[in-house]
Amino acid sequence: MRSIGVFCGANAGINPIYSKASAQLGKLMAGQGIKLVYGGGNVGLMGVIADAVLANGGRGIGVIPQSLVDREVAHKGLQELVVVETMHERKAIMAARSDAFIAMPGGFGTFDEICEIITWNQLGIIKKPVAFYNINGYWDKFFEMIDHTVSEGFVKFDQRENLIVESDPEVLLQKIRAYADATSDYWVDFKRI
């Protein structure tokens, strides 16, 4: 596990637990030599996890559209900042450069990004672990909805079971590694996206 794509909020949320837990995950990733691949921002939980990775000797790669660079929200301390034109390019590059994915608390952008990755796994475009860092029960309602889609026959049970949900960041990374070890034949064919 060399790199993890992290999707998270450009806001920090109203409860300080989100920032504290995000910093904890960033510290663990750096300590385990896992490179952060994320949206490239210096604001909200994006900024928190990037700062924590960098403060603990880790490496960060940001992928950010030019429009957000123009708004001065790009993180200037990263080892690599990839500037793209569109959100579609951003997501494709993040998918290609990540060995696994974690969704932290966030809003519509986070929902969009992690759901697209889940869909790519479902369609066989990629085969990479997808995890939800369930800080403060943030993802509980989301998984109630997913369980509803399973019970109504729109999502297969095994597709739901492949999603990792964990509130302890150490256990989260362990589960991602275990999943990756069990499915080590990752592949990506972006011509099919």
Overview of this protein structure:
- Helix 2 links the parallel strand 2 and strand 3.
- The longest helix is centred in the middle third of the chain and has 16 residues.
- The protein has a single domain, classed as Rossmann fold.
- It is an alpha/beta fold and 193 residues long.
- It is 47% helix and 17% strand.
- Helix 1 packs parallel to helix 2.
- The chain has a seven-stranded parallel β-sheet with strand order 4-3-2-1-5-6-7, with helices on both faces.
- InterPro entries: LOG (IPR005269), LOG_fam (IPR031100).
- Pfam families: Lysine_decarbox.
- Keywords: Cytokinin biosynthesis, Hydrolase.
- It comes from Pontibacter virosus.
- One of its GO terms (cellular component) is cytosol.
Structural class: alpha/beta
| Unreliable residue runs | 186-193
Helix content: 40-55%
Number of helices: 8
Order of helices and strands: EHEHEHEHEHEHHEH
* Order of strands across the main sheet: 4-3-2-1-5-6-7
Overall number of domains: 1
**What is the fold-level CATH name, i.e. the topology?**
Rossmann fold
Classify the oligomer: single chain
Please tell me how large the radius of gyration is: 16 Å
Protein name: Cytokinin riboside 5'-monophosphate phosphoribohydrolase
GO molecular function: AMP nucleosidase activity
EC number: 3.2.2.n1
Pfam family, one: Lysine_decarbox
Briefly, what is this?
This protein is an alpha/beta fold and 193 residues long. 47% of the residues lie in helices and 17% in strands. Helix 1 packs parallel to helix 2.
List the helices and strands and how they pair.
Blueprint: E1 3-7, H1 17-31, E2 35-38, H2 44-55, E3 60-65, H3 66-70, E4 80-84, H4 87-97, E5 100-103, H5 108-123, E6 130-133, H6 140-151, H7 157-161, E7 163-166, H8 169-182
Parallel strand pairs: 1-2, 1-5, 2-3, 3-4, 5-6, 6-7
